[in-house]
Amino acid sequence: MSEQTPDSLIPYDEIVQEALRAVVGRVLGEVQQNGGLPGNHHFYITFKTTAPGVDIPKHLVERFPDEMTIVIQNRFWDLKVGKDGFEVGLSFNQVPARLAIPFAAVTGFVDPAVNFALQFQAHVEEEADEPTEKAENDHPIAQPVEDGSNVVSVDFTRKK
To answer: What is the pTM for the complete model shown?
Structure first.
């Protein structure tokens, strides 16, 4: 018998990534429905700035040409969640901005209040990822706890 794992004709990795991104949509949808964040919950959402469907101001794309992290905490407005993505108003250096982000562009979601995190594979054809800077939204930023508890990271690297 061969020890090689056969290539799947079912795209399990894509199905799981889509399901995990739906968690982000459901959580943001509940925040929208309830009119705000409950308790101490707040979110760090990382996304690819040049992914298809991302609509953010040009100066943010210039500053974050690959990926950026936004913080949904104190100062955000007009959160609208749809089937394929969300829109939110945020302030950057006291300048208001409207961002539209498809869920497919999201690469990370963290709620430090409960030490919960999701990480997604980016399907971008690049040679190497460059480090990203924080978006510097206009409010204090608490650092997420990175001890690994409640973190879901999915990596579907095939063995050949």
So the answer is: 0.74
